[in-house]
Structure formats: structure tokens, C-alpha cells
Amino acid sequence: MQPLFEAFTKDTGIKVNVISASSGLEQRIKAEGGNSPADVLLTVDIARLEAAVESGITQALNSKMVEEVVPVAYRDPNGQWTAAAMRARVVYASKVRVPQTSITYEELADPKWKGKICIRSGQHMYNNALFAAVIAKHGEAKAEEWLKGLKANLAQKPSGGDRETARDIAAGKCDLGIGNTYYWALMNDKDADKKPWADATKVILPTFQGGGTHVNVSGVALIKTAPNKANGVKFIEWMVGAQAQPMHADMTYEYPIRAGVPINKTIAGYGALQADPMPLSQVAANRKKASALVDKVGFDN
Amino acid sequence: MTGTTHPAASDRRHGWPLRRWPHPRATLFLIAAAALVLAPLANLALIAGAGDDDLWPHLAAHVIPRATLNTVLLLSGVALVTVVAGTGTAWIVTAYDFPGRNAFAWLLPLPLAFPTYIVAYVYADLLGGVGPVQSALRSVFGWSSAADYWFPEVRSLGGAILVMGFVLYPYVYLAARVMFQTQSVALLEAARGFGATQWRLVRDIALPMARPAIAAGVALALLEALNDIGATEYFGVQTLTLSVFTTWLNRSSLPGAAQIACLMLVAVAALIALEHYGRRRHGFAGLDIRAGHTTRVALAGPPRLLALAACLLPVGLGFAVPLLYLTFEVAARGLLIGFDPALWRHTLATVLIAAAATALIMALGFGAALALRIVRRPIAALAVFIAGLGYAVPGTVLALALLSPLVAIDNIINEAARIMGLATPGLILAGSGAAVVCAYVVRFLAIAIGLAQAGLARIPVDLDDAARAAGARPAGLVRSIHLPLLRPALWGAALLVFVDCLKELPATLLLRPLNTETLSTYIYQFATRGSFEEGSLAALIIVMVGIVPVIRMVRAADTVLPGLALRAEMARRNPAAVRGGA
Predict the structure, then answer these.
(1) Mind giving me the DSSP string for B333-355?
(2) Enclosing H/E stretch for B486
(3) What's B514-577 look like in SS3?
(4) Out of A27-41, B422-436, B479-493, B528-542, which region has the weakest mean confidence (pLDDT)?
(5) Which stretches within B24-108 are classed as H helix?
(6) CATH of the domain at B513
(7) Which of A20, A64, A111, B566 is deepest in the core (most CB within 10 A)?
(8) Phi-psi region of B80 (alpha: psi -120 to 50; beta: other; left: phi over 0)
């Protein structure tokens, strides 16, 4: 993210002071209260954005510019957060052993894949959001059946991360894996060591039956106690603006949220993304249930 | 031995102010140390008390039983590996001479300098399906894919036990070595004279005498393993600590997470209390104040090779392999040529914060242990016990719990400034490096206290009483007897604390000030992007910074003759005490 901040400073003369952490920043801002120096919170995953809203540290953005640029599905209905970029949760497949070029999320539970799928922990936030989307689509009972089916198809106990999933496919441990769009592209473009793992696999953009591909967001929220509110709003508008959006595409390998901004070439190579139209707030609403289902079916055991 | 045996007359003689409660300053010190740790723990209990009872049927049915089983298995495995590797190597380098012994003495503690999760990544990479080991096996045996043969899975409970065991055994090694070095030569030589075998010497004399130290070392290693999140998540081991995080982040219940953390804290506290109870009747006063060093037996023939191999295995697995891997990555990725200049700043920040925290932790930890030695009241023991509990809470949870107390103090300061008409300073504690230092103190105080107490347990209480009876004041007692005898333990503890501060991640991540990175958080940002190798250079810098105090410590421990120094000192200050003590 650092290059983005530097570009913002160069563009506006506003210095950006940063703390980055994987979790808990909303709790820190909440505890800091009125003296908190935080103006905006940037985070990946809808879960973290919702957690920030729930902890009461955000305020409505009220930006005409953001409302024009960002599609309704990728903003909070009450204006408490907006997406800045998107990633999709997709299938990595063995080039050699998987001839098909399209797949549905539902098919991942089909017994024909028994012992052939690798995935990281079902409690990881990326999987949590995917499973929540399945619940939102099909209801809890059907989602449980699906999750059981997926569990039965796993080649090994869930562990590692998305890049290990590609590595395990390359090693022949499994044929299919589930991962985020940018991990594969980074292996392919940026890391010579891991290029063979990308070479052994291909990315398929799966869809829900009768729907699109599950996407998640990196988003940003304005803090209620922001000491520099005007600069905070300026920053958020800048992040979805015409200058920053191509940087999202080429540096973090995410899908730009702004229409018309070119997608990174490697990512574009996966095919045209048809993002599922379901609003992310519905995904967020089913997160707890998804987490409970993972426990219930013993997905990580 | 309790305070009641203390001659009240001596208190009067020296005109101490509080006759009913002797040693008010030492007592106040103990209360302050305990309060520091109690503040975040109480806040944690407060968060836990906020509710979410409806979560528990689910947790009890699907989460806690398995997580408890996994945690118990993980800790048992790590205990076994660390005790065998740590105690075994400590005895070998203390009791024997063999080629490379001097090098091993300072190489053996070094695995500690690696963040556990980095070592986990390294082994998953080396031993994984496409890694060099399996690739070599495939080309040798002509297998075409991983499906053609069986190979143990690194990302598993067993893998987690081995990785953690070989990274964390130095806790036991350092604690045990200090004890072996200072234990009674006379006793060992007497036993030898009566024809005791080496094995009986170890089993019946050296080990029992070092038991408090070994227990303290294992406890530290286990608490570190218990609170790990990076390696266990990566290896897919569903531990209680992991369930704390999923309860907080996915089950969206911070109170529920705090409740699990509190239960773990109670369990840990009970286990520590049990261990104390278990050795309540044992006298461990095995310290020899008349002579310094155990003479090392020179090995020859097969035993020499055996000793070499026994030291090589943990050093190789815990240190050499990850070191070579990271060095290779630094070279392959041109991290030295494309040196990130920000790393200088991060290194400086890391060292400054770690050094400040270490100084504070050592002063508080050894101060508390010494104060307890002087006060000798149940309430003092309780204070020391509480002060050592911060290590039993996962780092992120501790950081969360520390936030409110820090902000509360900041608010008081700001309010005071407002009343006095001064400019309000803002979050001078919670928003600065002080927050990180505070977190380190709360988290690692247990290390200093544990090792100080283990060291003190070996100094006969009679010695204190004799010195006191001869008119020594508590401060003099500490200065002329306790501290000189504790010196090896002090070095060992300072090293452990410093290295732990260098590599601390979860609390640093959440509490560090704006625009500040430590080496550890710097590495982490690459790890979260799926390419921890980019952080290799920073990981090597942690190791290099960690080596400096290791070498210093080992040299000090090998050359200082605490017994002789002590004897001269005591004879000079107080001949009566020496007669009484010896």
C-alpha cells in the first residue's frame, strides 16, 4: 500500500501516517476514543469492515463522488464504508489433470472430486465469506450439505494458505484448490521461485448456479472521531479516483472498483469476471452462521 | 520458612519504620509489579463478563473439546522435545569436553532468535511436495508425483511439535545450563568418588538439583507454544489459542474470545501453582559457594561422536537449516543489493524498544523475586505469582486488554493538563512506543521472575538468616550475596527477554505507534502477502542482533567464577555470615 500513500501525498500534499495490522485495529481506535489520531481505516474483507461499523467507530461518508463511482453492491447501505478494490475467490486447477475450463461452486461438493480438493482453514476470513455467500444463496440447510460434500472431497486436512494450495496441486496432492485471484497472479508475475506452481495450475472463475463469481473487497471507512475529517474524505475519494484505481490493478493485483479502469493483464487472463450481484452486506450478515457451520461439520478437523 | 521466624529485634535495631509490617518498600514494589500485570488481566475479565452465554453450547459441542485435546497433545510433545534437547545438551556442554564444545555452548541458544512461524514456513517449503527433499527422493526413486509414495506431512500436529520443540528448547537449555554450571562440585565429586556412574550422577544429583530451573524453562517454552498463532494456523492445528481468534473474528464475539482466554489463564495458573506445590518440600540448595566450576570430563572415542551428534541435531534443525534457507533467499532475491534503507530505521526501533523493555523487565522481575525473598509473606508470593501471569495470555488478546488501561491513564493526564490550562498532550502512552514497552513488560515479566526464582531457590535461606543475624541489612544482603550468585541466571534471563522482545509480533502489530515498524512486523507484512521470503533479510538481522548478547552471556558464564567471587566478597564484608552460611 505504501506506493499508494506516497502517490496521494505527492498529489495532494497531505502526509499519510500509517499503522497496519491484521486484526484488532477497530478495537484500538474504539479504546482510544476521542483522542484517537485515526482518520480512516483501510481493511481487506467485508468481515473487518462490518466489525468496524459494529464497534461504532465509523461515520457516514456522504460523498457524492464515491456514490457515483462505486456500485451500490460494494458500499455500505448506510454509507459507513466503501470498497476501493475487489478480489474474487476462485478455483486453481491442475492444467494436466483437470481438462474442464468452467465450474460452479456447487460442483465443488460433487463426489466426483473425492480426495482431489485442497483448501486452507474454513475459518480463514476468505473462506468464511465464501461459505457465508453459499448460505445467503441456498439457505443454511443446503449450505451445510454442500460444506459436508466439500469436506468429503478434501485431499488433506485444511492448512497453509492460498499459495500452498497451488503448491500442493503442483506437487500432485490434489487437482483443485480454492484461492484468491491475486495470489496466483503474484506467483506467476512476481516470484520466480513460485512460477512453477503457477505454471502447473490454471485459474478458473467459478460461478454460483444461476449467478456470478464470489467477490470480496478491500474497503475503507471514515472514522467517527477523525481529527482531519476533510483530509480523510479527500483520501477516500482519491482511492476510488482515476489516478489510484490503475495502481490497485497493477500493484495489488485487485479488480478496480471504478468502471472503465483496465484490469491487470494477468488477472484479465482468467477471463471476464461476472461478479455475483448479491450485495456484500448479505454475505456479511451470514458470516457467523458460516463460522458455526464450519465448526459443526468439523471442516478443519 | 516464613516471616515469623524473622527476629523482630533486628528490625527494631535498624529503626525500620513499620514494626507490624517489615520491609514496606519491598512490599510496595511487589504490589506495583503485580498491579501492572493485573490491570490488563482485570480488563480481560471485564470484557469476558460482557456476555455471549448463548455461544457456549456451540463452543462446548464443536470447538472446545477438540481444541483442548490438540492443545494438550501439542504441549506434551513440545515439553518432551524441549526437555530432552534442552537438558541433554546443557549437561553435555557443561560436563564434557569434546571438539566443537565451545562453539556449541553459544550456538545452542540461537534457534530462539527465529520467529517460530518463519521456521514453520521454511520446513513446509523444504519438506513439502515440490520442495528439494521430496524432489530429490522422486528423482532418486523414479516416482512421478506425490501420489506415488508416502511422506510424512509437515503441516500437521507432529510437524508443529517438532518445529516448536527445536525452536523453543533454548528456554530449557539456558535455564538448565546456568544451574549445572553453578551446582556443587563437591557433591558431584563425592558421588564420583563413591563410584557413581555418569548416568546416576545425572539422575540422582544434577537433574534433581536443576529441577526448578528446568521446570521454569519448560514452563516458558510451553507458554510460548500455547500462545503461538502463526505456526499452528499454518500447520492446521486447531488449538485453544486459535479458537480464541476465530471466536473473536468469525464468531464475532470478543467477550466469548475473552472467556476462552480467561479459562486458559486459569488452567495455566493452576498448573503453575501445582508445580510449586509439587516441590514445596524439596530443598534445592545445591549451590556450591566454595568452588566455582564443575570440571569438564574430556571425551574420547564413540562417546565423543555421540556428544557431537547430540548437540548437532538441535542446532542443525533449529538454527542451521533455517539460517541457510534465509541466507539463500537473501542471495537469490538480491535483498542485500536492493537493500531496503528503511531496514536501518526498523532495526534501530526494534533494538531500542527491546532494550528499554528488557531493562525494565529485568529490574521488575529480579526485583520482585528478591523482594519476595526478603518479605517472605503469602501476600508477597501471591503478588509475584500474579506478576508472572501475563505470559499465559495470547499476545493480541493481551494487547487488546492493555489498551483501555493505557488510554485511561492518558485521559487522566489530558484532564490534568486541561485543568492546569496546559496544552493536552493526547495519547502519550497508548499512542507511543510506551504502549509496546508496556505490553512486553506484562508479557515477558514471567521470564525474568521464573529464572530469578529458580536461581534464588538454590541459594540456601540459611545464608540469608545468617547474614541478617550478623547484622546485614536487606539491601546489603541482596547486593553482596544474592546478586553475585544470581549473575549467571541474570544473564540468561536478560538474553531470553531481549530476544523475545526482538521478535514479538502480535502485541507489537496492534500497539506500535504511527509509521513505526519493528523487524518482526516488517517480516509479517510480507508473510501476509504470501511471500515471507522477502522478509528473509530482516529475519537474519533479528538473528544477528540476538547473537551479540548470546556470545556475551556465554562468555560471562564460562569465565566468571561466582563461588570464588562471592566468597571473597562475603569474607570481606561479613566474616560471620560466611561461617554461618558455609
Answers:
(1) TTTTTT--THHHHHHHHHHHHHH
(2) helix B483-503
(3) CCCCCHHHHHHHHHHCCCHHHHHHHHHHHHHHHHHHHHHHHHHHHHCCHHHHHHHHHHHHCHHH
(4) B479-493
(5) 24-48, 56-58, 64-95, 101-107
(6) 1.10.3720.10
(7) B566
(8) alpha
Interface of A with B in 5-44 (CB under 8 A): 17-25, 27-28, 31-33, 35-37
Chain B CB within 8 Å of residue A184 CB? no
- A63 and A178 in a common domain: no
State the CATH number of the domain containing residue A60: 3.40.190.10
B295 touches chain A (CB under 8 A): no
B6 in any annotated domain? no
Question: Would residue B339 count as lying in a domain?
Answer: yes
Q: What is the pLDDT of residues B323-339, one digit of tens each?
A: 999 999 999 988 888 88
Partner residue facing A172 (CB), from B146, B156, B254? B146
C-alpha cell at A20: 497496519
Residue A272 counted as domain residue: no
The reply to whether A156 touches chain B by the CB within 8 Å rule is yes
Task: Report whether pLDDT(B567) > 70.
Answer: no
In a domain, B326, yes or no: yes
Is A273 within the bounds of a domain?
no
- Residues of chain A with confidence (pLDDT) below 50: none
- pLDDT tens profile B167-226: 999 999 988 888 787 766 667 777 777 777 777 877 887 788 788 889 889 998 999 999
Q: What pLDDT, on a 0 to 100 scale, did the predictor assign at position B24? A: 86
CB spacing of B254 vs A164 below 8 angstroms = no
Count of domains for chain B: 1
Say if residue A156 is in the same domain as residue A286. Answer: yes
Cell numbers standing for residue B55:
455461544
Residue B50 inside a domain? The answer is: yes
Per the DSSP assignment, residues forming a β-bridge with A219 are A43, A83
A37:B514 CB<8 A: yes
Range(s) of the domain holding residue B372: 22-297+306-581
A115 plus A12 within the same structural domain: no
Nearest chain A Cα distance for residue B398, angstroms: 11
| Host domain of residue A183 | 88-213+281-296
Q: Residue B297 — φ and ψ, nearest 5°?
A: -85, 125
Residues 41-80 of B with CB under 8 A from A: 58, 62-63, 66
Residues A262 and A292 in one domain: no
State the nearest Cα–Cα gap between A287 and chain B, in angstroms: 7
- Domain assignment present for residue A9? The answer is yes
**DSSP states along A234-246:** HHHHHHTSTTHHH
Predicted pLDDT at B50: 85
pLDDT for A241: 95
Residues in B closer than 8 angstroms to A31, CB to CB, are 400, 403-404, 407, 430
Domain match, A167 and A288 both: yes
How confident is the model over B276-289, as pLDDT tens digits? 777 665 555 555 54
- Do A43 and A96 have their domain in common? no
A159 shares its domain with A290: yes
Which pLDDT belongs to residue B280? 65
* Tens-digit pLDDT profile for residues B521-561: 999 988 888 788 999 999 999 999 988 887 777 776 665 44
Q: Comparing A161 with B579, which gets the higher pLDDT?
A: A161
* Position A178 in a domain: yes
| In a shared domain, residues A62 and A196 | no
Counting one residue from A and one from B, how many pairs have CB atoms under 8 Å apart? 148
Count of structural domains within chain A: 2
Q: Is A186 at the interface with chain B, CB within 8 A?
A: yes
- The pLDDT value given to residue B20: 65
Contact check, Cβ <8 Å, A31/B403: yes
